[in-house]
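Can you give me the bound-state structure? Components:
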Amino acid sequence: DSGVTQTPKHLITATGQRVTLRCSPRSGDLSVYWYQQSLDQGLQFLIQYYNGEERAKGNILERFSAQQFPDLHSELNLSSLELGDSALYFCASSALVVSDTQYFGPGTRLTVL
Amino acid sequence: DQQVKQNSPSLSVQEGRISILNCDYTNSMFDYFLWYKKYPAEGPTFLISISSIKDKNEDGRFTVFLNKSAKHLSLHIVPSQPGDSAVYFCAARSNSNSGYALNFGKGTSLLVTP
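Here's the bound-state model for the whole set.
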């Protein structure tokens, strides 16, 4: 158990809808990262927050947004969903903005029908 | 563009033998490399890492080798055990404009047979 929690575990929705994925980092970790793993793809970095502020952006679509709250949990919002957004979404956390190791949660499997 | 490549999607090894998983990268800005292990229905778990200033790091049965000139790293597992069967991801970190996020390969599925 990495100490990172993600909810929900599974999510099934329809095209055009909006969903919110939630992540709670390990106790004491200030940095949260979001990754997407599509079929046959490695994990693709989406975005990083550190202590409430956005620190780095990867291949995140404009339809996607994220935020980190004062209690350090983070939410990833996906809107106008398309079939191709079906994927595993992982959250990871680390203690510092630059940390050697990121600890991953179990992921949320999103299915868009 | 895939900056971290794991060209072998799968590998099968007998229990007790050595498993060698390979990884190539293209970005010379990468300064830290990690291996993660992933079981089905779980998130990736950190396994071992190596800084670009080193060429070898060992932790128990796991050793990572880095060849900077070839932009290549490998993970050796000796001896391999059935419990090592999982997908192994190679990852690299740079302090470029994408921050300190990790760039992952697509993974190699290792099967260790009794």
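A couple of observations. The interface with chain B takes residues 2, 4, 33, 35, 40-45, 48, 55-58, 90, 92, 97-107 of chain A (CB under 8 Å). The two ends of chain A are 31 Å apart (CA to CA).
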